[in-house]
């Protein structure tokens, strides 16, 4: 009896914490259906005058570009970055996990050491480098580095997963005439599906929500992703259409939420297994 009571209290406590954490999201959703004045006069979640004009006007944007352009820009930036990150992380992790070469430990230590570098330390050198390449006001600073396994966190995640795959599978495949790339493509990557989904979700959400890096490298409104478009919607004079801003915030939340819930099972499995294997 006491055990069930304690469990019930723990559940109530967790539910209460969950409600507190998710309340701001409910408030944003409710505010998106209110008029701009009602947001500051009605503290309740239920709008007194339900309207969807905030979504229609908000999607139209405040200038010559609508959120259709901003969403297309975001997908143009995010999707190639995610795909190239998965490919490069798999290849680099496979090399560290299955091959022996000179200075292997030193090179892997350098890869892991980059995890300890704060982003603020490399902003200026990276900006100068990309400026010399002529990549400013393009998405190349995000897409091209993803081709070369520069996201060491994902390399380490994939490496931990590959280490848990028996090497006997590789040896059996070599007996059947498979080369290294065939083993990677037909054996390693299918078995690494949970880790691949984890990388895809992490990278998608991080790049989708990225504000600082995009602000540094992209200066044309025509190429703004949704993160910068939302900030642009806030008029510096203080005349902000908050209901439209809330509406577009909800719309911008939809793709990451859908991606997460569709791949939730693989995501949880990937995080669990990369943490215990190796």
UniProtKB/TrEMBL annotation:
Chief site of localization: membrane
Membrane spanning stretches: 9-30, 77-96, 108-130, 142-162, 183-206, 241-263
Keyword set, alphabetical order: Cell membrane, Membrane, Transmembrane, Transmembrane helix, Transport
Cell location: Cell membrane
Membrane topology: Multi-pass membrane protein
Domain of life per record: Bacteria
The keyword Membrane belongs to this UniProt entry's keyword annotation: yes
Pfam families: BPD_transp_1
Residue span(s) of domain ABC transmembrane type-1: 71-263
Key word Ligase present: no
GO cellular component terms given for this protein: plasma membrane
GO biological process terms, semicolon-separated: transmembrane transport
Gene3D superfamilies: MetI-like
Sequence similarity: Belongs to the binding-protein-dependent transport system permease family.
Name of the protein described by the UniProt record: Carbohydrate ABC transporter permease
């Amino acid at each position: 009896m006491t055990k069930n009571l304690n469990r019930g209290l723990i559940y109530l406590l967790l539910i209460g914490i969950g409600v507190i954490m998710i309340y701001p999201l409910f408030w944003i959703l409710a505010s998106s259906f209110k008029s701009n004045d009602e947001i500051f006069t009605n503290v309740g979640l239920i709008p007194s005058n339900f309207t969807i004009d905030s979504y229609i006007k908000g999607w139209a944007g405040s200038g010559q570009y609508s959120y259709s352009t901003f969403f297309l820009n975001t997908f143009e930036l995010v999707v190639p970055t995610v795909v190239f990150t998965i490919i490069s992380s798999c290849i680099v992790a496979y090399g560290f996990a299955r091959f022996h070469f000179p200075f292997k430990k030193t090179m892997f230590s350098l890869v892991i050491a980059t995890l300890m570098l704060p982003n603020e330390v490399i902003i200026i050198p990276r900006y100068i480098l990309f400026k010399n390449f002529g990549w400013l006001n393009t998405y190349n600073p995000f897409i091209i580095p993803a081709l070369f396994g520069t996201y060491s966190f994902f390399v380490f995640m994939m490496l931990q997963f590959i280490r848990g795959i028996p090497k006997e599978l590789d040896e059996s495949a070599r007996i059947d005439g498979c080369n290294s790339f065939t083993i990677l493509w037909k054996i390693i990557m299918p078995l690494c599906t949970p880790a691949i989904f984890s990388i895809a979700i992490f990278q998608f959400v991080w790049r989708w929500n990225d504000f600082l890096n995009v602000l540094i490298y992209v200066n044309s409104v025509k190429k703004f992703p949704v993160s910068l478009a939302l900030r642009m919607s806030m008029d510096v004079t203080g005349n902000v259409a908050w209901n439209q801003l809330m509406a577009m915030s909800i719309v911008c939340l939809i793709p990451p939420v859908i991606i997460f819930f569709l791949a939730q099972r693989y995501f949880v499995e990937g995080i669990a297994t990369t943490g215990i294997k190796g």
